[in-house]
Specification:
single chain, alpha+beta, 5 strands
Length: 126
Protein backbone atom coordinates (compact mmCIF):
# COMPACT_ATOMS: atom_id res chain seq x y z
CA UNK A 1 0.00 0.00 0.00
CA UNK A 2 1.76 3.12 -1.23
CA UNK A 3 1.44 6.54 0.32
CA UNK A 4 -1.32 8.82 -0.93
CA UNK A 5 -1.81 12.54 -0.51
CA UNK A 6 -4.91 13.02 -2.60
CA UNK A 7 -5.80 9.72 -4.26
CA UNK A 8 -4.98 11.00 -7.76
CA UNK A 9 -2.49 10.03 -10.44
CA UNK A 10 0.08 12.37 -8.91
CA UNK A 11 0.65 9.72 -6.25
CA UNK A 12 2.72 7.69 -8.73
CA UNK A 13 5.25 10.51 -8.78
CA UNK A 14 5.32 10.64 -4.99
CA UNK A 15 5.67 6.85 -4.73
CA UNK A 16 8.56 6.94 -7.22
CA UNK A 17 10.24 9.71 -5.26
CA UNK A 18 9.84 7.86 -1.95
CA UNK A 19 11.38 4.75 -3.51
CA UNK A 20 14.29 6.84 -4.84
CA UNK A 21 14.76 8.41 -1.42
CA UNK A 22 14.98 4.91 0.07
CA UNK A 23 17.68 3.99 -2.46
CA UNK A 24 19.65 7.17 -1.75
CA UNK A 25 19.32 7.12 2.04
CA UNK A 26 19.02 3.83 3.89
CA UNK A 27 15.54 3.61 5.47
CA UNK A 28 17.26 2.36 8.64
CA UNK A 29 18.68 5.91 9.00
CA UNK A 30 15.37 7.75 8.42
CA UNK A 31 13.48 8.84 11.52
CA UNK A 32 10.51 10.71 10.00
CA UNK A 33 9.23 12.11 6.72
CA UNK A 34 6.80 14.99 6.16
CA UNK A 35 5.17 15.29 2.74
CA UNK A 36 4.10 18.85 2.01
CA UNK A 37 1.46 19.38 -0.69
CA UNK A 38 2.24 21.38 -3.83
CA UNK A 39 2.18 25.13 -3.25
CA UNK A 40 -0.93 26.47 -4.97
CA UNK A 41 0.74 29.84 -5.52
CA UNK A 42 3.59 28.35 -7.61
CA UNK A 43 2.78 27.05 -11.06
CA UNK A 44 4.22 23.60 -11.65
CA UNK A 45 4.83 23.07 -7.95
CA UNK A 46 4.97 19.48 -6.70
CA UNK A 47 4.87 18.03 -3.23
CA UNK A 48 8.17 18.16 -1.38
CA UNK A 49 9.57 16.12 1.45
CA UNK A 50 11.19 17.13 4.69
CA UNK A 51 12.90 14.23 6.43
CA UNK A 52 15.19 13.54 9.34
CA UNK A 53 18.03 11.07 9.81
CA UNK A 54 19.22 9.69 13.12
CA UNK A 55 22.44 11.15 14.53
CA UNK A 56 22.60 10.03 18.15
CA UNK A 57 20.09 12.04 20.17
CA UNK A 58 19.95 14.63 17.38
CA UNK A 59 18.41 14.64 13.92
CA UNK A 60 19.87 15.73 10.60
CA UNK A 61 17.24 17.71 8.70
CA UNK A 62 16.87 17.40 4.90
CA UNK A 63 14.51 18.43 2.14
CA UNK A 64 13.86 16.59 -1.11
CA UNK A 65 12.51 18.61 -4.05
CA UNK A 66 12.19 18.01 -7.77
CA UNK A 67 14.88 19.61 -9.93
CA UNK A 68 13.73 21.08 -13.23
CA UNK A 69 14.94 19.59 -16.48
CA UNK A 70 14.78 16.44 -18.55
CA UNK A 71 15.60 13.17 -16.82
CA UNK A 72 16.31 10.51 -19.46
CA UNK A 73 17.23 7.86 -16.86
CA UNK A 74 13.63 7.58 -15.62
CA UNK A 75 14.41 9.03 -12.19
CA UNK A 76 12.25 11.80 -10.83
CA UNK A 77 15.06 14.39 -10.71
CA UNK A 78 14.84 14.67 -6.95
CA UNK A 79 17.40 16.93 -5.23
CA UNK A 80 18.22 16.32 -1.57
CA UNK A 81 19.56 19.17 0.55
CA UNK A 82 20.85 18.95 4.12
CA UNK A 83 19.76 21.85 6.33
CA UNK A 84 21.48 21.10 9.61
CA UNK A 85 21.62 19.14 12.84
CA UNK A 86 19.01 19.76 15.55
CA UNK A 87 17.95 18.21 18.86
CA UNK A 88 15.27 15.59 18.17
CA UNK A 89 12.70 17.37 20.35
CA UNK A 90 13.02 20.57 18.24
CA UNK A 91 12.01 18.93 14.95
CA UNK A 92 8.21 19.31 15.41
CA UNK A 93 8.66 23.03 16.11
CA UNK A 94 10.77 23.46 12.97
CA UNK A 95 8.13 21.66 10.88
CA UNK A 96 5.39 23.90 12.31
CA UNK A 97 7.46 27.02 11.61
CA UNK A 98 8.05 25.90 8.03
CA UNK A 99 4.35 25.27 7.58
CA UNK A 100 3.50 28.79 8.81
CA UNK A 101 6.22 30.33 6.67
CA UNK A 102 4.88 28.64 3.53
CA UNK A 103 1.46 30.07 4.26
CA UNK A 104 -0.18 26.68 3.78
CA UNK A 105 -3.04 25.78 6.06
CA UNK A 106 -3.20 22.07 5.33
CA UNK A 107 -1.10 19.80 7.45
CA UNK A 108 1.73 17.90 5.80
CA UNK A 109 1.44 14.13 5.72
CA UNK A 110 3.64 12.86 8.57
CA UNK A 111 5.23 9.42 8.21
CA UNK A 112 6.91 7.81 11.22
CA UNK A 113 9.70 5.56 9.96
CA UNK A 114 11.76 5.07 13.11
CA UNK A 115 14.59 3.47 11.15
CA UNK A 116 12.39 0.50 10.27
CA UNK A 117 13.05 -1.13 6.91
CA UNK A 118 9.71 -2.94 7.31
CA UNK A 119 7.82 0.33 7.84
CA UNK A 120 9.53 1.83 4.79
CA UNK A 121 8.58 -1.19 2.69
CA UNK A 122 4.92 -0.83 3.79
CA UNK A 123 4.89 2.79 2.62
CA UNK A 124 6.52 2.18 -0.73
CA UNK A 125 4.80 -1.03 -1.80
CA UNK A 126 1.71 -0.93 -3.97
Amino acid sequence: MGVSLNGGGEDQSMDLRLRELGRTVSPSEIAEVWVFPPLETLEGSTEFFLFTRFDGDRRRLYSACLSPGVRPNGNSGQRITEHGLVPADRVPLLVAQLQRRLGEFSDPLHLEIGGSDERWAELTTD
